[in-house]
């Protein structure tokens, strides 16, 4: 396997644009790439684009009728077929929607191919992570489910065990749905409790079909959970399951919307904790998945202050050139922020915190809501993997 890391990037992904005022502002992608370049991270890995996913690739997850509907909606956004999700304010059709969506999917699929084929040890597509899209419908700002397509391509190439780790604040429902009955895929989602956040799924009792019992893992954290709680839950569940499952590749989704500044959710993580989550995923890829790691972006609607910083950290970690937390943001990037937004950007690369968490092995408090959430997941899933809850 090559030690090279690869960043999948094509300027065309910024065409994924639901229009003025929509939370999924493509400026977050432009500013992330600009910060990657300002930090010199583009010189620490290979930056390469990939073609859009073709119909045969999209068909690994999506129904042909849906793909046809996306194409039609791209050409006539004002006239869309009912039943495919484009009549929602979340997913309004826009010109060029099929092209931009399939381009994002193509980057993730190419990253999966590079990692599996040994061309790169790690690959990053921060434009990806569109984990809500369903086989026959758009959902939650997501048109094509690039994460599920990347996993499906790994399986097509011969992988028999792929792990998916979703760190977005929202449940990774589309990826879970795609592999609900497939014992070759382990999906783990750490998210805000469905009582208080879209999409309303991701309860610990959702553990997969009978043919893949224990293949879906959901840690549903109470609103307001912060650094220490989130990191405790992450480390209390993920490494043991990866050790038991033995994946040949790890695909992770790094939604930035767990941050306390995000306007659409209610977890209160700092950028420092998000960075530790990315470091953990990287370490687990080496420890449990033979180093094969595909890292994706996801949600994140603090498009200046949060998203570019955490995804730049993700790129640095994948390149084995991590950005130190105390690093000051380059002045050239701040100028780019002002030029694009007429606003100011953050001055340092993290929030200046140093999160610490109590290891699960030290004991738990049955009255603590976070510990209750962790225990519910372990009790629901661990027996399927021969583990003690």
Any idea of the CATH topology?
A: Arginase, Chain A
Secondary-structure element sequence? EHEHHHEHEHEEHEHEHHH
Class from helix and strand fractions: alpha/beta
Assess the beta-strand content as a share of residues.
Answer: 5-15%
Overall, the morphology is: globular
Mean pLDDT: 97
CATH architect. name: 3-Layer(aba) Sandwich
* Neighbour order of strands in the largest sheet: 2-1-3-8-7-4-5-6
> How many domains?
1
Q: Which segments are poorly predicted (pLDDT under 50) over 5 or more consecutive residues?
A: none
How helix-rich are the residues, as a percent range? 25-40%
| CATH evolutionary superfamily | Histone deacetylase domain
Can you characterise this structure?
This is Acetoin utilization protein AcuC. Pathway: Ketone degradation; acetoin degradation. Keywords: Acetoin catabolism. It comes from Streptomyces zhaozhouensis. Belongs to the histone deacetylase family. The protein has 389 residues and is an alpha/beta fold. The protein is globular, with a radius of gyration of 19 Å. The protein has helices spanning 27-38, 55-58, 64-75, 97-116, 146-156, 173-178, 227-245, 271-288, 307-318, 331-341, 369-381, and strands at residues 5-8, 46-48, 122-125, 162-166, 185-192, 216-221, 249-253, 293-296. The protein has a single domain (5-385), classed as Histone deacetylase domain (Arginase, Chain A), CATH 3.40.800. Helix 4 packs parallel to helix 5 (146-156) and helix 8 runs parallel beside helix 9 (307-318). The model has no long low-confidence stretch (mean pLDDT 97). Strands 2-1-3-8-7-4-5-6 form an 8-stranded parallel sheet, with helices on both faces.
